[in-house]
Task: inverse folding
């Protein structure tokens, strides 16, 4: 038995950000906190947001201290600032980190600090209207019910359960995303889609969105990496990110993210890159249990199947296609990232203890995790 839903409405299209002032006003907000990072400010996007808010006579404060994989202390600081300033709404402007931090800040607004009290805990006083203005095609956090936060006390990633009121997707805001970040966030989207298709609890809604996302990524990611100003390709990626986010919000991600979370925590590899490196071997693993679904991943990537392939052959064929695609868009190998094989294999225990492992098609042992990690090193050069 599965389930599917959509957490919040989405406004999409070129120029969609210009509706922000009207939407905030309709939500009854008169003083908002803009949660963002320095990169958004440097790109000129923050100035645009300020101008829109001023034109609608909405008072605002800016909290621009968000960094990648937002740590708990940043969220706690933002939560206290929101309380002190007595805001009545929050606008996240940025990628997944800003959106996740904004979710954590919103959890804290009507509740006691610190944010660690609410990891995995849906029982708290609800917060304020929260609007996501997306500037990268990556996490899909604008439509998920999870805000990922770095737990600095335990040196791992944890999360709050929180949703938003509205998402605004304007592809023009993504034109300034640098090449490397475009690649990494695009591969993160890809991993959301392929894992949503192969997770333990799939559903038809997630399936349709995940397949559409994969097709758009395969069509447009390389274009965006080579020409960041291609608005049509940027539009494809932004929708792919949103579709994949909605897809995995219900079907959930699994082993690929367990591996990526562990690689990120141990070696500080960018999340999307770690996901890209994991997925070929994850699809080989998944094909042992649900080769028909792995075949769907391959077909969405443009592969043809005769119908006579074994489960193992399907897994290897799809894995090869993913490796080929990853190389084209510029994903470096584990060795190129300066990580030794023994070091990578050594995180197997972290992998099997990551929270997302529970959504994999079948459980894996530490020895099986070691083999998968070794294959990630050996098979992608």
Result:
């Amino acid at each position: 038995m599965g389930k599917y839903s959509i957490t919040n409405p989405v406004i999409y299209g070129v120029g969609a950000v210009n509706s922000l002032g009207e939407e905030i006003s309709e939500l009854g907000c008169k003083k908002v906190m803009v949660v963002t990072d320095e990169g958004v400010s440097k790109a000129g996007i923050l100035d645009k947001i300020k101008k829109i808010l001023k034109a609608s006579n909405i008072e605002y404060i800016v909290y621009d201290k968000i960094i990648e994989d937002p740590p708990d202390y940043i969220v706690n600081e933002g939560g206290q600032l929101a309380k002190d300033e007595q805001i009545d709404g929050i606008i996240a402007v940025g990628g997944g980190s800003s959106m996740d931090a904004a979710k954590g800040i919103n959890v804290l607004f009507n509740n006691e600090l610190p944010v660690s009290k609410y990891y995995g805990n849906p029982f708290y006083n609800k917060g304020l209207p929260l609007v996501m203005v997306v500037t990268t095609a990556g996490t899909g956090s604008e439509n998920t019910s999870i805000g990922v936060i770095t737990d600095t006390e335990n040196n791992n990633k944890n999360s709050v359960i929180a949703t938003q009121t509205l998402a605004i997707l304007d592809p023009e805001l993504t034109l300034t995303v640098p090449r490397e970040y475009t690649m990494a966030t695009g591969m993160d989207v890809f991993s959301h889609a392929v894992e949503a298709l192969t997770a333990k609890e799939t559903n038809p809604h997630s399936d349709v969105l995940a397949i559409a996302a994969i097709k758009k990524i395969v069509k447009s990611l390389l274009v965006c990496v080579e020409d960041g100003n291609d608005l049509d390709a940027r539009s494809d990626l932004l929708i792919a990110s949103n579709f994949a986010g909605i897809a995995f919000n219900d079907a959930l991600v699994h082993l690929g993210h367990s591996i990526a979370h562990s690689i990120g925590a141990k070696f500080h590899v960018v999340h999307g890159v770690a996901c890209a490196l994991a997925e070929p071997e994850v699809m080989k693993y998944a094909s042992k249990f649900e080769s028909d679904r792995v075949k769907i991943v391959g077909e969405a990537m443009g592969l043809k199947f005769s119908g006579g392939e074994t489960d193992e052959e399907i897994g290897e064929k799809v894995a090869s296609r993913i490796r080929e695609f990853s190389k084209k868009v510029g994903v470096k190998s584990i060795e190129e990232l300066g990580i030794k094989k023994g070091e990578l294999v050594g995180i197997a225990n972290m992998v099997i203890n990551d929270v997302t492992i529970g959504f994999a098609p079948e459980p894996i042992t530490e020895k099986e995790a070691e083999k998968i990690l070794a294959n990630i090193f050996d098979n992608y050069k």
